[in-house]
Amino acid sequence: MTMTIQMKFKVLLNEFLTISKPYITTEVLEEIKSEYYYQIGSKRKISGIKDLEGLIKLLEKYTIISYDNIKPLYFISSYVKPNLLIRLEKYESDYNQAILSKHFCQSYNMYKNNNDQGQETFDQMRLPNSLKESSYKSVLSETAEQFSKASYDQELKLKQIVLLKINEQLGHSWKNICRLLGLKECEINEIENKNLSIKEQSYQALRICILQNNSDWKINLLHALEKGRRKDIRENVEKILLNNKI
Known about the structure:
InterPro entries: DEATH-like_dom_sf, Death_dom. By secondary structure, the protein is an all-alpha fold. Among the domains are: 5-80; 149-244, Death Domain, Fas (Orthogonal Bundle). 71% of the residues lie in helices and 0% in strands. It has helices at 5-20, 26-35, 37-40, 43-47, 52-61, 71-77, 85-116, 133-170, 174-180, 185-192, 198-211, 217-227, 231-243. It is globular, with a radius of gyration of 22 Å. The two termini are 34 Å apart.
């Protein structure tokens, strides 16, 4: 039977707890608890946590940790001697693959159909026979650099388009969505303390979350909007991503 991503998440948590428990002393537990005090917002609940398992359950209850956000596990793993990064990275790889399959299967099928009709890929292009090996390597190097820069510029432009579109609709939801994107409470407080309109606050926060995030930003954004109950914005973002496929 194929495991769902939620099942894999439960397996990951069980393995993580089994390996980590011996290394989480009372002192270490207090340090970890202090990291999530503001997100939980309840001194009574924080003080009631007596072990790592209790903390993980509370973080799950507040959706600080979930099948689509395992950042706290990376933080906790820094206190554990055995290297847990391989397990965490493997889970994230499986998760990202599952989400990409769900959200971009239509785009993938369009790409596949085009290739089936005879379009050449970059690797399939042939250079003239007269091109010497040194020139060949030089051309490949220059082409790769140009391709990389063009891709970066396109990605940056796409981020800006998405940022402006979201900012038009987000309003007071910006804090919740940006928390789901990993923005820290101190950063949110800093933006709130500025004499800015809601739209300006939203723009600054989204800029940090989107423009400065170069890995998996599309997937993270779609899930933050889904989890933050802004399906209306998520659908608009999906349309933009499909129409501006890089």
